[in-house]
Specification:
The complex is a heterodimer of chains A (about 300) and B (about 280).
Chain A (H helix, E strand, L loop, with lengths): L2 E12 L2 E12 L3 E5 L6 H8 L7 E6 L2 E2 L11 E4 L11 H11 L6 H9 L15 H13 L5 E5 L7 H17 L3 E6 L2 H7 L2 E6 L2 E7 H5 L3 E7 L3 H10 L4 E4 L2 E7 L3 H10 L6 E5 L2 H9 L1
Parallel strand pairs in A: 3-8, 3-9, 6-7, 7-8
Antiparallel strand pairs in A: 1-2, 1-4, 4-5, 9-10, 11-13, 11-14, 12-13
Helix pairs in contact in A: 3-4
Chain B lengths: L1 H13 L3 H30 L1 H6 L9 H9 L5 H10 L1 H9 L1 H5 L6 H35 L4 E4 L3 E4 L5 H28 L4 H19 L30 H28 L5
Antiparallel strand pairs in B: 1-2
Helix pairs in contact in B: 1-8, 2-5, 2-8, 4-8, 5-8, 5-9, 5-10, 6-9, 8-9, 8-11, 9-10, 9-11
The chains are: A alpha/beta (about 300), B mainly alpha (about 280).
């Protein structure tokens, strides 16, 4: 399956704070790709960089194999997005809001507005001012504007934020429908593991701006791919070791968390010892869920 | 570009705060003209007390021309506030409400979006000045009729009523150019901040601050005074001199165009590099 979005070694810092630190991932055509991380992990910053809202310090973003050129915004024709809150012109109706975005997308057939409003079940409320909409309706309108220019990829940043359980279920249903019926690749971010698990086929986990894990959701959630928590004072040595052996790792609260296969733990410990890396504690975290709960709690 | 300007115009037309400026001018000009209608003779006689010792004044001193001249002075502070309500909101207001994020996800360059917003702001400024002209002169004609204009500036100048219209036309053009400088300044500040109050307060603070500094007339500022944009806001008054100093007015136009260019280029540069975090 071909890669529709590829991000390589993305960095963004604000003074001394590293918001995104060497993030790389790729999204395949047809994926519902989960972007998981606790609040402040760097999810929104990464997604905003893809959309050109934030300029990266370094790194590469490719869309359909072509490097994204921030000076030429044409690549945005391929992407629809709902970033954080669904903010609209509150004094205008849903139809007027979409008409503004329709004009800015240089579209030709005005009927597309009714089409997308129908898709998100807001057609009968199209003349109402957005200021009077509920949070769920605004989220659905946000999806409608992301769909309007028929993009090949849509990016949804925490689309279930502020929704009640029924609203969240409806949102998942809508995203699945968009993915299957309109064949649009979806990148969805969330700080809730269960939400990503329910809807995504592949995902990335990030924390403190760094990639923690990436892969098939089923595989990551199984015990085949586990997290190893290591306490050591050989900080530089273990970091170099992980980089050399391409082992995804993160450093949290004086512990290193490595993504590794359960059957090969002994092998890893022997290898670390042979590199003279002193190990004070090695602990196996059963699943990604356990690891993620450690992070968020 | 036309598409973007149309969108910005649509947004301005639909925004309630757009009409605050027109309403304020309507109320201020209306109230002042009514006050002059009922108590103007008394007020004017106090103002020209000294003149009456040296001149014999006949005819209608209070007329549409005099009131228009007096009210045109409101462009020093009052009209800039009303202009900033809209132009200062253009970027910062949209950043605060999150809609800037929405429009920047569309395939237009940021510089194009900035220029469209700036042009729309200038059109709004022009429409506000046209409304001010219409209200002051139109309502003045209705209430007071026309007459010769007495101007007290660097002496006394009396301008015949049939010689005054073209002067007002150029005076309003000059005033409008000054207000476009103000609109450009507030747009530039708007690109630096993420709330709509900042550009309004910032622009007015700069206007008042520069006015105070240069009204004091300290000798150290004498040489730079012609290059400070606030000193050109009242240049429209030169059109009511007996001998109009064309060179000063040409320099004034040039300086103000340079300011418009600088403010907008800085605004575009900053808008292009700005991270959208709201």
């Amino acid at each position: 399956m071909s890669s529709i979005l590829e991000v390589k070694n993305l960095h963004k810092s604000y003074q001394n704070f590293k918001a995104v630190d060497d993030i790389s991932f790729h999204v395949n055509e047809g994926d519902i790709y989960g972007f998981l991380g606790p609040n402040g992990a760097g999810k929104s910053t990464t997604l905003r960089m893809i959309l050109g809202l934030i300029k990266p310090d370094s790194g590469l973003i490719q869309l359909d194999g072509e490097r994204v050129d921030y000076s030429n915004k044409k690549y945005l024709n391929q992407i629809g997005a709902l970033i954080e809150r669904p903010d609209f012109y509150k004094n205008l109706s849903a139809y007027e809001n979409l008409k503004i975005l329709y004009s800015m997308s240089k579209l030709k057939d005005i009927r597309i507005i009714d089409d997308v409003l129908n898709e998100v079940d807001l057609l009968d409320r199209k003349k109402d001012k957005v200021g009077g909409y509920s949070q769920g309706m605004k989220q659905r309108l946000g999806i409608a504007q992301a769909l309007m220019h028929q993009p090949s990829l849509i990016i949804l940043d925490e689309p279930s934020n502020g929704l009640d359980p029924q609203g969240q279920a409806d949102m998942r249903k809508l995203i699945l429908k968009i993915n299957t019926e309109r064949r649009i690749t979806v990148v969805i971010s969330s700080h809730i593991l269960a939400e990503i698990e329910k809807i995504s086929n592949r995902m990335i986990v990030i924390n403190k701006g760094r990639k923690v894990a990436e892969g098939e959701v089923n595989q990551l959630m199984s015990s085949d791919s586990i997290k190893i928590q290591i306490k050591t004072d050989s900080h530089t040595a273990i970091e170099n070791y992980c980089k050399t052996h391409q082992i995804p790792f993160t450093n949290e609260n004086e512990s290193y968390y490595l993504q590794w296969e359960e059957a090969k733990i002994n092998e890893l410990i022997k290898s670390l010892n042979s590199e003279n890396i002193s190990l004070y504690e090695v602990r196996q975290l059963k699943t990604l869920e356990e690891y993620f709960l450690n992070l968020t709690n | 570009m036309i598409r973007l300007i149309n969108i910005e115009l649509f947004k301005i037309v639909k925004k309630p705060r757009t009409y605050i400026g027109f309403l304020a001018i309507f109320l201020i000009v209306g109230a002042l003209q009514l006050a002059m209608y009922f108590e103007g003779e008394e007020l004017i006689s106090i103002a020209i007390q000294n003149l009456e010792n040296d001149f014999r004044l006949e005819g209608k001193i209070i007329n549409a021309n005099l009131l228009t001249y007096i009210l045109l002075n409101s462009i020093i502070i009052h009209i800039p506030i009303l202009i900033c309500l809209v132009t200062g909101d253009a970027i910062a207001g949209e950043a605060a409400t999150g809609t800037l994020r929405l429009i920047l996800q569309r395939p237009f360059k940021r510089s194009e979006i900035y220029i469209a917003k700036a042009i729309t702001g200038f059109l709004y400024t022009i429409s506000l000045m046209v409304f001010l002209a219409g209200m002051t002169y139109g309502l003045g004609l209705l209430l007071f009729g026309t007459g010769d204009l007495i101007v007290l500036r660097r002496g006394v100048t009396v301008i015949a009523s049939d010689d005054v219209t073209w002067r007002f036309f150029y005076a309003f053009c000059s005033g409008t150019l000054s207000m476009i400088v103000v609109a450009s300044l507030s747009m530039m500040i708007s690109s630096f901040v993420n709330n709509a109050i900042g550009p309004i307060v910032g622009t007015i603070a700069i206007l008042i601050g520069l006015n105070i500094i240069f009204t004091l007339g300290a000798p150290i500022f004498k040489d730079i005074l012609p290059y400070i944009f606030t000193s050109h806001i009242t240049k429209w008054q030169y059109f009511f001199d007996f001998d109009i100093d064309k060179l000063v007015l040409q320099q004034s136009v040039l300086v103000q165009f340079v300011y418009i260019l600088i403010f907008n280029l800085v605004g575009i540069w900053n808008f292009n590099r700005k991270d959208i975090l709201t």
